[in-house]
């Protein structure tokens, strides 16, 4: 594990991999091989190479912990300090990860376990930006024309793409501010699918840094050969 410089804030990455892979047709996407390495392990290896992440907490399902622990030892993911069970929703799973982080952590870097092609450079850019802004995420411009459709299935309007971006992870936040947002969501019983939206709920501005088009999320079976092609440097 790389030694942390005492002059900078402590960062804990929370890698969320507790979903049911419902859109994968029953296939456990976290264990699929991309370039001979399981999806989740490849994700963890990117954080292992980050210069700014001090520890990693993985949130997964109870039954997957023993096999994942074996893979972490096999691939020498030395920054992983905790494997914890997730909740019923993504937001609840992230909360489980937050509770497992070391007490003196100052920033959380929350990442989808199913984004195995994230680069250490992208991770560190988001972290450095969060140190300046308190909340940061990577984003890429929306490429396709978008349409608003009415109840009958006809086009109602064509919104402008200007200023519209697709969000990626990791999303990095000041720990005290994120905990404040979590507490408010719990009191109001609100669920958010996006951690930036959670921060927005307390009025905290969230800053975007340039993301990477290759930082795709494995969601459907069609995403697997695409990720493989990206890894091999093929055109896509």
Description:
By secondary structure, the chain is an alpha/beta fold. The protein has one domain (11-231): Spore Coat Polysaccharide Biosynthesis Protein SpsA, Chain A (Alpha-Beta Complex). The protein has helices at residues 39-49, 65-74, 90-100, 120-133, 175-188, 195-200, 223-231, and strands at residues 11-16, 33-34, 37-38, 55-60, 80-85, 107-112, 135-141, 148-149, 155-157, 165-167, 171-174, 207-210. The strands form three sheets. Strands 1, 4, 5, 6, 7, 10, 11 and 12 form an eight-stranded mixed beta sheet that branches. The protein has a two-stranded antiparallel ribbon with strand order 2-3. The protein has a two-stranded antiparallel sheet with strand order 8-9. The mean pLDDT is 92.
CATH class term: Alpha Beta
Per DSSP E runs of 2 or more residues, the count of β-strands stands at: 12
Please identify which CATH superfamily we are dealing with: Spore Coat Polysaccharide Biosynthesis Protein SpsA, Chain A
Q: Low-confidence spans: pLDDT under 50, at least 5 residues?
A: none
Q: What is the succession of H and E elements? A: EEEHEHEHEHEEEEEHHEH
CATH topology: Spore Coat Polysaccharide Biosynthesis Protein SpsA, Chain A
The major sheet is characterized as: 8 strands, mixed
What's the pLDDT, averaged over the residues?
92
User: What structural class do the secondary elements suggest?
Assistant: alpha/beta
Number of helices: 7
Radius of gyration: 18 Å
Helical coverage, percent range = 25-40%
User: Span between N and C termini?
Assistant: 34 Å
Tell me the fraction of residues in β-strands, as a range: 15-25%
CATH-scheme architecture: Alpha-Beta Complex
């Amino acid at each position: 594990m790389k030694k942390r410089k005492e002059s900078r804030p402590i960062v804990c990455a929370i890698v969320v991999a507790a979903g049911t892979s419902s859109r994968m047709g029953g296939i456990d996407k976290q264990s699929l091989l991309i370039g001979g390495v399981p999806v989740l392990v490849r994700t963890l290896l990117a954080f292992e190479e980050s210069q700014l992440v001090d520890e990693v907490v993985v949130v997964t399902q109870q039954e997957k912990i023993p096999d994942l622990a074996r893979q972490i030892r096999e691939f020498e993911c030395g920054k992983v300090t905790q494997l914890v069970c997730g909740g019923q929703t993504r937001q609840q799973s992230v909360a489980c990860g937050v509770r497992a982080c070391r007490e003196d952590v100052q920033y959380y870097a929350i990442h989808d376990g199913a984004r195995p092609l994230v680069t250490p450079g992208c991770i560190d850019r988001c972290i450095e930006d969060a140190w300046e802004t308190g909340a940061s995420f990577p984003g890429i411009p929306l490429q396709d024309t978008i349409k608003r459709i009415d109840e009958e299935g006809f086009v109602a309007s064509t919104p402008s793409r200007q200023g519209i971006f697709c969000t990626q992870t990791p999303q990095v936040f000041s720990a005290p501010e994120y905990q404040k947002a979590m507490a408010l969501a719990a009191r109001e019983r609100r669920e958010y699918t996006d951690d930036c939206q959670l921060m927005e709920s307390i009025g905290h501005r969230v800053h975007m840094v340039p993301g990477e088009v290759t930082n795709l999320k494995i969601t459907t079976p069609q995403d697997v050969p695409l990720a493989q092609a990206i890894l091999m440097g093929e055109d896509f």
